[in-house]
Protein: SSD domain-containing protein
Organism: Octactis speculum
Amino acid sequence: MKAKFRDVKVVSITGILALLAYGIFNIPHAMSLAPPEAPEEWFPKDHMFTKVRALSEVFMFAPEASYITVTVTFGISGINRKKANFNKFVPNSNRGDAIFDEGFDLSNPMCQKAFVRACNDANAYSCNADGCKPFNTIARTNSSICFMEEFRSWAENDTYTWDSSLFTEKLIEFRNTESPQSGTSENWEDLVGVIDGEIQYASFTFKAPIGNLESLETKRPVLERLYRFIDYVKDYPECTTASNPCDCGSVMQTTSFAWTWLRTEEGLVYGFYQGLLICFPVSFIVLLWSTGNYVVSIFALVSVIFIVVGVLGFIASVMGWDLGVSESVAGIIIIGFSVDYTVHLGHMYIHAEQEGYHDKEERFDYAARTMVSTVIAGAITTAVSGAFMFSCQMTFFLKMATLIVATIIFSYLYSLVFFMGLLYTIGPSGQTGKIPFEKLKFWKTQAAPKKIPDVVHKSESGNSVHGLHTDEVDDVRAQESDALRTLPEEPSHHQIVGVGESEDQNKLQ
């Protein structure tokens, strides 16, 4: 680090430029991290659990099962979660009670027409997103299941002309006795919602051309197109301009897994970057507080950023990982590792001034002598402890081991080469960059009065007193002399005893 060529700090500058270039190279790779397109593999490819899952997907499920099933529902306006004491951290318990749309009445001819029209339009509604190819529609060809069409065929009559009681009676009979012609289920109970003898909601389903496990960027445009379709249904003439319009305000679309997992993926990405946005400013505040120098803190923060970017770029470009659960969690944890070494080195660089070192090169030497060995020891122990997880079977622990070891390596390089190199070449000297904390009111403390020792012990040489300098000894002796002058006089032990005094007095003398 200290090698020079014609007064140019060649080694330090070379190390700084090399790590700076590598950090910039890793920025686009780190930013390219995205949620995985498939479920995370929790076991190695040759593990029996992985093989069982792969075989079950081939032999136990139809190909259509891998596509998203979209359910379009009329008549449910929301969910009342307060009554059920819903806990978002336990989402499968006490989910709440459905809130039915009191304005929706399927016996209304306009509602029947709107429902049938939506069933037909789903098969033809355009979608140019990549997830809709090759059909270029929101639904796979002939994949919709619409009970109203089969019900009207079964009734052999125009159900639009029936009154409400007859329509409800016949539809309940159809629901309980008939099954879909497609053979996808045994009855219509899930699509025709009958509660207490009343039809509360009605649904139809279709298969979207996108798989459940497609990437976030592939699924999101399809979801947005489905929202457009729902808005299109709500604007039907049957729902807006008819003489007795249907209340279509509660129409919605849902899936059992795809959109829930999409929001989870978005939450992982959002939480990861939100964590970075929070951690970096907090780290900078900690660095300012611990070092008391904004120049050193800026150098340390840049080092921390490059450490995090380096680790994320490494797992993206070299390991080929996605932004999964373990990567999202570890991406926040690594900031703690990356700050640790720079804080200690920066603190010792600033502390060197109290030891009489004011020049940046002297401070560098002091920080290197006092802290580098500690940093190396900490790096070795942490890396070795993380390396033990390389023997685990679950890929989660393998990834954690890789991230910990990689973080330690990058922290070691950027703290000792990049950060210390910056301090050695352009680091602050003297009072440069110092934050005057002592001028703040809450920072000031009253100095304690100097305590005068009760007993002063003179050294054998007679020139000093233990623990005190010569000038301080004089002050102490002067104060001791003043104290002795105030004491009452006592008879001298060398006085001559007068004649006639008792023998007892002589003994006391």
About this structure: Strands lie at 67-74, 76-80, 97-100, 192-195, 198-211, 252-254. The chain has a mean pLDDT of 80. The first strand starts at residue 67 and ends at 74. The first helix runs from residue 10 to 31.
